[in-house]
Amino acid sequence: MDTLTDRLRSNLDGQPMLATLGVEIVELARGRVVLDLPVRPAVTQQNGFVHAGAISTLADAAAGAAALSLMPEGKDVLSVEFKLNLLSPGVGERLRATGTVVRSGRTVTVVGAEVRSITGGVPGKEVALLQGTMIAVEHAP
């Protein structure tokens, strides 16, 4: 890969689940990745709120990509564990997950992600907070 941005974009674009959900890349930087999930009926639950599974996937992907951004070439990351606090219903035009690295190591990286609702381009309520651990693995060809 030529750049960090290319590497992160390739990783995220290579995840069919994110394509299924319609996740969009907003920002890619060292230690910080921002992803959006457009809110539409296909990602909601029975009450019309964004499904917790979609929210956790969005947060996990943003946090994982942030961890990957600090890994050397040839490494990838996998989630070891994460805790997700759902703080308010997922509503709005889109949900935005900002993934950040809390502490990066050669093997284990601690990450966080905040998910907020967005309507009219304006950030709204916090929807969820994730804290997790990622492990470095050899990149599969």
Rg calculated over all Cα atoms: 14 Å
Low-confidence parts: none
| Series of H and E elements | HHEEHEEEE
How much of the sequence lies in strands comes to over 45%
Chain-averaged pLDDT: 96
Principal-axes geometry comes out as globular
Q: Please give the share of residues in helix.
A: 10-25%
Number of helices: 3
Taking the alpha carbons of the first and last residues, their distance comes to 13 Å
Please provide the count of β strands.
6
Which secondary-structure class do the elements indicate?
alpha+beta
Strand order of the largest sheet: 1-2-4-5-6-3
Largest sheet data: 6 strands, antiparallel
Pfam family, one: 4HBT
Protein name: PaaI family thioesterase
InterPro entries: ACOT13 (IPR039298), HotDog_dom_sf (IPR029069), PAAI_dom (IPR003736), Thioestr_dom (IPR006683)
Keywords: Hydrolase
